[in-house]
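User: Please work through this fold.
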Amino acid sequence: MPRPKGSKNKKTVSVDSVEVIEEKIAAAEAEIEELSDHLKARKSELKELLKKKEAALKAAAQKKAEEDKAAILAALEKSNKSVDEILAFLK
């Protein structure tokens, strides 16, 4: 006589008690809360780092602009030409 379909694949289901399920739920909620707090801290840290990066970039750009200006003025003095002559040359 053949075996009925699906009889070999039956699985037993273990049923946890309500207390165990509630403990697992509480643990999961506590872990989510902890991770949320950690995420908020990391986001604020990232925000501060981005502000510092922006300030550093501004300072570097300003320093480079001052160096370029000094180099241009030095080249102007070295050329022994007047500002009008240089402006005429640039046009």
Remarks:
- The chain has two helices and no strands.
- The helical segments are 18-79, 83-90.
